[in-house]
Amino acid sequence: MKTLIELLRLMRPHQWVKNGFVFTGLLFGHAWHDTLLVERVIVVAIAFSLVSSCIYIINDIFDREQDRYHPKKQNRPLAAGTVMVGTAVALAAILAITALALAYWVSVMAFWIIAGYAVMNLAYSFQFKHVVILDVFIIAAGFMLRILIGTLGVEILPSQWLLLCGLMVTLFLGFAKRRAEIIALTEDKASHRRVLEHYSPVLLDHMIVVTATGLIMSYSLYTMNPDTIRIHDTANLIYTVPFVMYGVFRYIYLLHHQTGGGDPSRDLARDPHILGVVGGWLVVTIWLIS
Questions:
Q1: Are 192 and 82 in contact (CB under 8 A)?
Q2: Cβ contacts of 8 within 8 Å, gap of 6 or more
Q3: Measured between alpha carbons, how far is 207 from 225 in angstroms, rounded to an integer?
Q4: Distances in Å between the alpha carbon of 29 and those of 74, 150, 224, 285?
Q5: d(CA 151, CA 148)
Q6: Domain that includes residue 10, residue range
Q7: Banded model confidence at residue 190, pLDDT cuts 50, 70, 90
Q8: How wide is the angle at C-alpha 271 spanned by C-alphas 25 and 252, nearest 5°?
Q9: Nearest-CA neighbor of 179 among 169, 189, 164, 167?
Q10: What's CA 231's distance to the chain center, in Å?
């Protein structure tokens, strides 16, 4: 039983909340009434959850030595030695095969998006995670692929505004994550993640400001866009902008004053303000566009 719990921890199921991005196309494409389409989106969301767990395991295999120096990550199963490397490799292979099979069942496009995500993240693990700025863009690209598998992967045409807003929010979260890592590792930060040598708090604060501004502005313009008003048959989405602004400002507050921001999934689940504002935004948005 203890081994199964450790394997589940290795898969990081709490991170599956990130795959909520898969459902964006379903929500903003007014496709939630199509039962077959909803089923296909749920299947690709499961496939993405499994492949992302596979990537987390691979990352943990290669990062286990560095993680032992991290104040929190040293308790991960591989870093702590509670799961053997061979067992982790076998689990990663099973997850990858299952994810690809599920994606192929939905569509060939979904299969290639899952495969592309896996290849991109393997390249990240071996090389690109050490390249400053590019490392964050690859993390953002992973979220963009989540949006694409929930749109193109199930034959929903993605909105350009949707993709732009998705890019801004994922870059914001990526740079905030790097900032949180620097805060957590005040000494010998490079012993955990080599790329942190090239980041400084001031540089990351500038990038967070730029991406946070881009996120708020792009979402605000999206709500006022004539095509958005026509598709959703409402001009009232502008009233959801305060939810987005509050969420962004709260996240920055957590980053600087509550040592948060390093794990968006945990912050979403643990901070009542973030949880409330996301829930409020979702309820109001669905109410307005239904």
A1: no
A2: none
A3: 26
A4: 42, 10, 17, 13
A5: 5
A6: 1-158
A7: very low
A8: 80
A9: 189
A10: 27
CATH number at residue 40: 1.10.357.140
With b for 16 or more beta-carbon neighbours within 10 A and e for fewer, the 230-263 pattern comes to: eebebeebbebbebbebbbebbbebbeeeebbbb
* Cα 169 from Cα 112, distance rounded (Å): 24
* pTM of the full structure: 0.83
Among 158, 193, 213, which residue terminates a domain?
158
The per-residue pLDDT for range 209-247, each reduced to its tens digit, is: 999 999 999 999 999 989 888 888 899 999 999 999 999
Arithmetic mean of pLDDT, 130-151 = 91
Please name the residue ranges forming H helices in the chain.
2-11, 24-28, 35-67, 77-80, 85-106, 108-126, 134-149, 160-184, 201-224, 226-232, 241-257, 264-270, 272-289
Under the banding of pLDDT at 50, 70 and 90, the label for residue 156 is: confident
Instruction: Extract the tokens encoding 53.
Output: 């767990």
